[in-house]
Structures are given as structure tokens and as C-alpha cells.
Specification:
By secondary structure, the protein is of the alpha/beta class. It contains 5 helices and 5 strands. It has a single domain, classed as Alpha/beta knot.
């Protein structure tokens, strides 16, 4: 199964990029054991539209344009549910077995995600009510996907 992490904003070099690269490398290895065939990190430019709603709408279109139709969508948004890592792993397992062309993990920009993304998403996931930079959110998403693959393959990385 193809995994796509599509985010608004560019990741500059520095500690966040190093962390993202570390989990990207780990996931490429560990993901194979649970059926992940490809991992893609997609960066989308922030909209320069005048209003917040116009920016969110343009960014939503950018995010959705980069994923195949019929993908399982995970939207990361503070209004979502906060699953445990084990619950996230079980959801990912079901998504991997769904027969969809891809699983897409969408991360919004500074204004957040457009409501249309949340409506289309199969899963709306929250890391809590805190607002965080997209660079950190991207690292957290990759780490949780990696953690989920280790849970699913009984690797000792995840300890309770």
C-alpha cells in the first residue's frame, strides 16, 4: 500500500528535518512488514489568498489534488479524536487491508484544515488541543505511523 503524507508548508533544514528523515528511513524498512510498499512526503505551498477561508479552501484543493481518488484519508486536526497508539495502529491496519489505492495523511497550514477536508476524511485525528507548527506535526505523524507499524509487526519499539 502506498502512504502519502501531504502537508502545507515547506520543511527547512534543521532538527525537524532530521527527525522527519529519521522516521522516514525507519518507516521505509518497518512498513514493508505490514504491507507498506511506498512512502511519499508531499509539500504544498501555503496559499497567499487574502482571507482565511480562501486560504484554507485553496490549501484543501492543493492537498486533495496530490492524492489518488479513493484514498483512505487521515486528517490531522485539533477537532479530531485522540486515539491511543494501539487504536491508531488498528485503524491503520484496517486501512492497509481496505484495497484503497493509497492512504493519505493530511496536515494543514497555519489556518488549519478546511472543513471540506474533515468531511471527506475517513479519520480525523488530533494530537490534542494544542496548536503546533507543521514541521513538528509532520514529525509526529511520521513517528506515529512508524510506531503503528511496529505495533502491528510485534516489534519491541512500542512499550506500554
Amino acid at each position: 500500500m502506498r502512504l502519502i503524507i501531504s502537508a502545507i508548508g515547506k520543511l527547512k533544514s534543521g532538527p525537524e528535518q532530521e527527525l522527519v528523515s529519521r522516521y522516514e528511513k525507519r518507516l521505509k524498512g518497518a512498513g514493508k512488514t505490514v504491507g507498506v510498499s511506498k512512502l511519499e512526503l508531499v509539500e504544498n505551498s501555503e496559499s497567499r489568498a487574502a482571507s482565511e477561508q480562501q486560504r484554507k479552501s485553496a490549501e484543501a484543493q492543493s492537498l486533495l489534488d496530490r492524492i489518488p481518488s479513493g484514498s483512505v484519508i487521515y486528517a490531522f486536526d485539533e477537532r479530531g479524536k485522540s486515539p491511543t497508539s494501539a487504536e491508531f495502529a488498528q485503524n491503520l491496519s484496517r486501512s492497509l487491508e481496505s484495497g484503497a489505492p493509497a492512504i493519505a495523511f493530511l496536515i494543514g497550514g497555519p489556518d488549519g484544515l478546511d472543513p471540506s477536508i474533515r468531511k471527506q476524511a475517513d479519520h480525523v485525528v488530533s494530537f490534542g488541543a494544542l496548536t503546533m507548527p507543521h514541521q513538528i506535526a509532520r514529525a509526529l505523524v511520521l513517528e506515529q505511523i512508524y510506531r503503528a507499524t511496529t505495533i502491528l509487526s510485534n516489534h519491541p519499539y512500542h512499550r506500554i
